[in-house]
UniProtKB/TrEMBL annotation:
Gene3D superfamilies, per database record: Alkaline Phosphatase, subunit A
Name by which UniProt lists this protein: Uncharacterized protein LOC113392103
GO cellular component, one term: extracellular space
Transmembrane segments: none
PANTHER family the record matches: FI08016P-RELATED (PTHR10974)
InterPro entries the UniProt entry points to: Alkaline_phosphatase_core_sf, DUF229
Length: 407
């Protein structure tokens, strides 16, 4: 979307967060922190696989916080058949925002049948492209003469075919231009973002693809009034564009811009001193680590360690692959009548952290490995991060540190 990017950069003077790092897999792990300042595990455990009767509590989300302080709120999201908080979850216990689109789109898409009715029916509402329908609703909401908070999440135009998103370029420019010409930016914080990069695609199997998934697009335009009242805010934001930032920071920043910084999360990762979520309107330490920011090693792009390839002749090369394969098969073991047992067909690479960089003692109990394997049936490609316990001679693996990177 070159026109939209140019408009953000030149006309709106947006600040792009070049060190923005996601904190987990897929959309929910991006949106839970942004919209609530919490991880999924800090919410009621509403995953469908564990319970059908536990729902997400709207009071824990920023829509509720904003409403408590006089804001009208809106949450617009397309693709209701795979909703961010419905696909693997039971949804909300009640409507999370004043203006909520889910019921309409569920009815309009006949509870997901639109997915199967062909492309010419899927992407439009009558004569209007669905993404433009959401943009138009957002534009109308922005015209309300009150304090307002809106989260518009458009996925369908890019979710399954990234090439389609270019068709929205001109309309996004028109929307951004309207926001500027209407004078809204005097008192509006504008964020244009993506939730994550491609999770599975041919490019995802490359090193660049691995970075792309983890470093989502994030741009911020500060309100003119805020820049006048807090002259250091823009300077701090620009400085923070070059350091490690996360979805947790976005939540804290939004509250700070609303004058509600006292309501931001005070959670501190155990054994560290600074908060997990920091405001981008204040300078963030350049020394900040992924651990401090609440990013698991599997998702951290800027691991402060050096890696080297494990040779095929090293016994750990095969042992690491076998351990990951066994772990993946164990996950589906209880459904073995439905899910065939997978077989390891190839090992793409195995890397190991360089202990010389971290310790003069080579007998440290845990060594960190990353690995990519291919399994059958089909070409099932997995990328995993694992700790090796040297005392027990075994790998420790978490489902939060395994990515399926093929369709």
């Amino acid at each position: 979307m070159p026109k939209s990017y140019k408009f953000l950069k030149e006309d709106l003077e947006a600040v792009f967060l070049n060190g923005y790092n996601i904190v987990g897999d897929g959309t929910p792990d991006a949106l839970f922190p942004i919209l609530s300042g919490r991880t999924e595990l800090q919410h009621p455990y509403a995953r469908q696989r564990y319970s059908k009767d536990i729902y997400l509590e709207p009071d824990l989300f920023i829509f509720h916080t904003a409403k408590q302080y006089g804001y009208q709120t809106a949450y617009y999201e397309d693709m209701p058949w795979i909703g961010s908080f419905q696909y693997r979850y039971n949804g909300f216990s009640r409507r999370p925002a004043d203006h909520y689109l889910r019921s309409f789109l569920m009815e309009e898409t006949s509870h997901g049948s639109k997915w199967w009715n062909g492309l010419h029916k899927r992407y439009c509402l009558g004569a209007t492209p669905q993404y433009l329908f959401l943009l138009n609703l957002t534009r109308q909401f922005m015209d309300l003469n009150t304090k307002r908070f809106c989260f518009t999440f458009i996925a369908d135009i890019s979710h399954d075919d990234f090439n389609l998103i270019s068709t929205a370029d001109d309309d996004v420019v028109d929307f951004l231009d309207h926001i500027k010409q209407s004078g809204k930016l005097k008192d509006t914080l504008l964020i244009v973002m993506g939730d994550h990069g491609p999770r599975f695609s041919p490019m995802r199997s490359t090193y660049q693809g691995k970075m792309e998934e983890r470093m989502a697009f994030m741009s911020i335009v500060l309100p003119e009034r805020l820049k006048m009242e807090r002259p250091d805010a823009l300077e701090s934001l620009k400085s923070n564009s070059k350091v490690l930032t996360t979805p947790f920071d976005i939540h804290t920043t939004i509250l700070d811009a609303m004058g509600l910084n006292n309501l931001s999360s005070d959670f501190i990762v155990p054994n560290f001193k600074i908060r997990r979520g920091l405001s981008l309107l204040q300078k963030i330490p350049k020394t900040r680590s992924c651990d401090e920011a609440g990013i698991l090693p599997h998702w951290c792009v800027c691991l402060n360690i050096k890696w080297y390839n494990v040779l095929k002749t090293d016994r750990m090369y095969q042992k690491a692959a076998d351990s990951l394969s066994e772990y993946i098969n164990n996950i589906t073991d209880e459904k073995r009548s439905l899910c065939v047992k997978r077989k390891l067909t190839s090992i793409e690479w195995v890397t190991r952290e360089d202990l010389k960089e971290k310790s003069s003692n080579h007998l440290r109990p845990n060594v960190y490995y990353q690995i990519m394997i291919v399994m059958s049936p089909g070409r099932a490609v997995y990328e995993g991060s694992m700790q090796y316990d040297t005392k027990l001679d075994k790998f420790v693996i978490s489902d939060k540190a395994v990515s399926r990177i093929s369709a």
